[in-house]
Amino acid sequence: MADSASDADITRILRSAGCVFAESEAALLIDGFTGSDLDDAVARRVDGTPLEQILGWAEFCGLRIFVEPGVFVPRRRTELLVHRAAVTSPRIVVDMCCGSGAVATALAHRLTGVQVHASDIDPVAVRCARRNVEPVGGRVYEGDLYEALPEDLRGTVDVIVANAPYVPTDAIGSMPSEARDHEPAVALDGGVDGLDLHRRIASNAPGWLAPGGTLLIETSRRQSEDTAGIFASHGFDTDIVCSDDLDGTVVVGIRMSDG
Ligand code: GLN
Fold it and tell me: In whole angstroms, what separates CA 71 from the centre of its chain?
């Protein structure tokens, strides 16, 4: 492109590249970039890079969450985790497999006095999450699930939330290119049946939750009975919550007291 393309040109380019929301995407790119940077941004979008990774932010629970290349883009459906976690008015929250830290950040915004901890195994995600979570007073740790957390949180956590990877390995190939080619496999791949991380998170959660504490894991509607079965097998009082509006499904487990 010799000169920067006009709004209508950009909309047309994005539409023919298959962007469903070409007009609003064009407006956001025009708002965020000028000149050759705008041309580059349009070219990256045409190439399948998620819009949010190009803009550097995603809207989540009404907030702008920083998103970087190679980091899982927060989905609207994951707002259900935030809504469900907030109703329990927790004092201490852990956002496990936090990616950009969207859930932790939204909870820190919504709940006064909450102590927010977030962790992820991927150093790229951890760096991005720190940009989101630290300014709202939370802490981010790098490591494999509970190994990342400070020991003194054991037995004290009111809510553990997780949007852990739950895509069955064989289904990754049929995800849209935005996910398949631009989000890390470690954020998507949940093993053969997609539930490896759900098993690992649920089996260790009772040791970290306070009595009566809650474990909340996003899953798909199709996998929800299996995720709920995993919770139940670890002694949780278990429920499945769905939102048609958000197209989201969350399994809720309450840690029964040890009696
Ligand atoms: N299919 C899911 C989504 O796009 C994948 C999320 C995940 O594995 N955490 O929302």
Answer: 10
